[in-house]
Amino acid sequence: MERNACPQRNGKGEKMKTIGLIGGTSWESTVTYYQIINETIKAQLGGFHSAKCLLYSLDFHEIEECLTAGDWKTVAGILTDAALRLEKGGADFIMICTNTLHKVVDLIQESISIPILHIAEVTAAELKEQKIDKVALLGTKYTMEQDFIKDRLMKNGISVMIPGEQDRERINAIIFQELCLGIVSGQSREEYLRIIDGMMEQGARGVILGCTEIGLLINQSDTQAPLFDTTVIHGKRAALHAIGK
């Protein structure tokens, strides 16, 4: 039998959607995305099933320079080019494998005809399913201090808290100076856990790990505070969307 006569299908006989991933920001967390997506597909469909996906991996050095310069226009152009290439390659929907770059998601969506699975929307859906209506948000300083993630959460009825200025600076520094370079430090883990404990004492009912690298440093086994890792949520929801669930 010819191989092209056997297209991948989900349990209902529907053809599996192709996921278009914009990754490389950083590549360490993109590896986690790929693993989560494929593990979810296998758990759902069994057998030899794996995800149909296309990956466009960016050079994070270029992105980081633009972020430092505040040049979001160039960032939007780089990501739009990536999204167009994925659409042309046959992707059915797009994932941006980072929270921070969702700041330009509306500009990207204007240039493509396939949908973008927004990281904040799927995270909000997860929080509502868990009946969590007040969260602390950890991430890059852009994610914590600007509104492109917080607004999406609040529009879904979720109250958002962020750490104080010194803690925000520390969180951001650990992300860019350590995690994005593949450095995982026990001391930094303790810093994050200290901040999480403080946010829970201030009334948070859960904590969003709102940077796709933070899950490299801490996970649910490290704390009793309910953690919501956007990388895990985004990856799982993408896989389920691809098979129509």
Low-confidence segments: 1-5
How much of the sequence lies in strands comes to 5-15%
CATH topology of the largest domain: Rossmann fold
Number of strands: 7
Describe the biggest sheet? 4 strands, parallel
Binned, the helix content reads: 40-55%
Strand order of the largest sheet: 5-4-6-7
Q: What is the CATH class of the largest domain?
A: Alpha Beta
Elements, N to C (H/E): EHEHHEHHEHHEHHEEH
The tally of structural domains comes to 2
Report the principal-axis shape: globular
Question: Which class best fits the helix and strand makeup?
Answer: alpha/beta
Mean pLDDT: 92
Mind telling me which CATH architecture of the largest domain this is?
Answer: 3-Layer(aba) Sandwich
| CA(first)-CA(last) distance | 30 Å
Radius of gyration from the CA trace? 18 Å
Number of helices: 10
Task: Characterize the structure shown.
The chain has 245 residues and is α/β, with parallel strands linked by helices. It has two domains: 3-118 and 233-242, Rossmann fold (3-Layer(aba) Sandwich); 120-229, Rossmann fold. It has helices at 27-45, 60-69, 72-89, 105-111, 119-129, 141-145, 150-155, 165-177, 186-201, 230-242; strands at 19-23, 53-57, 93-96, 134-138, 159-161, 206-209, 227-229. Strands 5-4-6-7 form a four-stranded parallel β-sheet, sandwiched between helices. Helix 1 (27-45) links the parallel strand 1 (19-23) and strand 2 (53-57). Helix 1 (27-45) crosses helix 10 (230-242). The longest helix has 19 residues, at 27-45.
